[in-house]
Every structure is written in structure tokens, then in C-alpha cells.
Write a sequence for this structure.
């Protein structure tokens, strides 16, 4: 029997909203509502992410609902666009639909959250185009019980999508400020199976290896050997490769039993360059 949890939550939220309207000055009721939200019994907004509590509770809640409705419509249009471009894996599309991209976008670009484009997130980095996030995720052939290594946490959006599909995500970011912002966004969305580390992605995460899959969200000039070493036999590595400013190609590698890899060239892409540790830069 299939139970549509999202419809149940929506119905519950509507009933709670009516009760709130009758008890606008009733702080005990609000504390009760907050306790339900803390337990995961209700959602105070459709994004699944926490909102700050302040004295303008009613106005903020109303504005938040209107904003979420707008973003919900834009998200639906985006998903249709991604399907038209060739990604039709329902599990991947559901994962994208469940992650509010506007929670991972810089405030100044929030109105563009559901455009199918990369957007700046500061520090010379970007949040990837949603189609590319979906395409790369689909290429990993995820089944649900994997441990995935992500190189380049960035905004945290790709990690959030992966978190809906796998057991654990291990994500490395070389820029501390981005890692901290991503952690805040992931925590606000209640995501607890993304494990973060500030470090050099070229070296991977040997303490947690081997991984069922590896995804790289920035372009190295060549495939880092350490990432292949830390991949399980039969595991998949998806990585954009190429020099900055030149043609880059998205590659899919599968590790064979003898340690060699089978390589498939997917599509041309454009990513920011993968940054090595300062001590390794020329």
C-alpha cells in the first residue's frame, strides 16, 4: 500500500493553519506547533527547511507561504524542462523535487533559483545547473545503499540531492567559508547523512574509503589517481575533465576487477576548475 506522505503533511498543515488563525495570540499553541515541527510531525513550510522564529511570526509565515508557492510552481516547470532534456529517472527527479534549491542559492540570486543555469555562490564558485546535477546523479546508477564521495561541496545542493538517494554522502570542500555555509543549509533542511570535510579533493577521503561511487563537481585537468584508488570494484566515478577555458568533457568511469577502469565520454560541459591545496599549486 502506497501512502502519500506529502499529501498527509499538506492536509495537516492546512488544519494547523486554521487553528493558528483562531489562536493568533496563543503562544502556548505556537509552542505546541513548534514542538511538533521539531519532532518532524509537521512542516512549517513546503521546502522542508527550518525558518527563523521572530516577533513578526504571522507576517513572515504568510510571506513564506507565498514565496514557497511561487518556488513550487517554478520547481515543477524546471523538472519538466529537465525531463525534456533527457533525464527521466523518476528517483532522481523526485530527489530534485524534494530539495529546495532556493535554500542553497545566494540571497541576491534567489529569484533565479529555478532557472536551469549555474549561479554564483561567492569565492569564484557556482551552484551547478540543475540539469547537470540531475544528469550526473543519474549517471551514478544509484540503488539506495551506497556510500558516495563528493568532491566540491560548494553550496551543498548536489550533496542534498544525493542524500535523498543513498545511505551516506562524504563531501569535501577546499574553501572553508563555502563548507560552513553548506553545512548551515544542509542542517536547516534536516539532512543528517552528509558528512563534511574541509580539505584537498585531489587526495580524496582515504579514512572513509572505499566508496561505491565518486562524483566531482569541479573540473581537474586530468583524472586524480587517488579518486580511482578509493573507488570500490564495480564502482562509478563521474567527473568533468579539462583545462579551465577549454572544452571539458563529462566522463563516466567504472572500476574493473583488475583495478583498471572502463571509460565512457558523456557530454561537453563547463565547470569551474578543481582547486588543489595551496602547497600543490604551481
Amino acid at each position: 500500500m502506497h501512502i502519500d506522505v506529502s499529501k498527509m503533511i499538506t492536509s495537516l498543515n492546512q488544519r494547523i493553519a486554521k487553528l493558528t488563525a483562531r489562536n493568533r495570540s496563543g503562544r502556548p499553541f505556537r509552542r505546541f506547533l513548534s514542538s511538533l515541527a521539531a519532532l518532524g510531525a509537521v512542516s512549517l513550510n513546503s521546502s522542508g527547511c527550518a525558518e527563523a522564529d521572530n516577533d513578526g511570526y504571522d507576517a513572515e509565515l504568510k510571506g513564506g507561504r507565498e514565496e514557497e508557492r511561487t518556488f513550487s510552481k517554478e520547481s515543477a516547470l524546471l523538472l519538466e524542462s529537465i525531463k525534456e532534456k533527457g533525464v527521466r529517472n523518476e528517483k532522481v527527479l523526485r530527489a530534485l523535487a524534494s530539495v529546495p534549491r532556493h535554500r542553497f542559492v545566494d540571497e541576491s540570486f534567489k529569484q533565479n533559483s529555478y532557472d536551469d543555469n549555474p549561479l554564483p555562490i561567492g569565492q569564484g564558485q557556482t551552484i551547478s545547473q540543475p540539469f547537470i546535477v540531475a544528469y550526473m546523479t543519474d549517471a551514478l546508477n544509484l540503488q539506495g545503499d551506497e556510500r558516495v564521495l563528493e568532491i566540491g561541496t560548494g553550496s551543498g545542493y548536489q550533496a542534498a540531492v544525493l542524500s535523498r538517494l543513498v545511505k551516506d554522502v562524504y563531501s569535501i570542500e577546499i574553501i572553508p567559508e563555502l563548507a560552513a555555509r553548506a553545512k548551515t543549509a544542509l542542517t536547516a533542511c534536516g539532512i543528517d547523512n552528509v558528512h563534511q570535510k574541509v580539505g584537498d579533493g585531489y587526495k580524496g577521503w582515504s579514512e572513509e574509503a572505499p566508496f561505491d561511487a565518486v562524483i566531482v563537481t569541479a573540473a581537474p585537468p586530468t583524472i586524480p589517481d587517488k579518486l580511482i584508488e578509493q573507488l570500490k570494484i564495480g564502482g562509478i566515478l563521474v567527473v568533468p575533465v579539462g583545462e579551465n577555458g577549454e572544452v571539458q568533457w563529462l566522463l563516466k568511469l567504472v572500476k574493473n576487477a583488475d583495478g583498471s577502469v572502463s571509460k565512457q565520454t558523456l557530454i561537453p560541459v563547463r565547470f569551474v576548475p578543481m582547486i588543489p591545496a595551496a602547497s600543490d599549486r604551481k
Observations:
- The beta strands are 119-122, 125-127, 147-151, 168-173, 194-198, 211-216, 231-241, 248-255, 261-269.
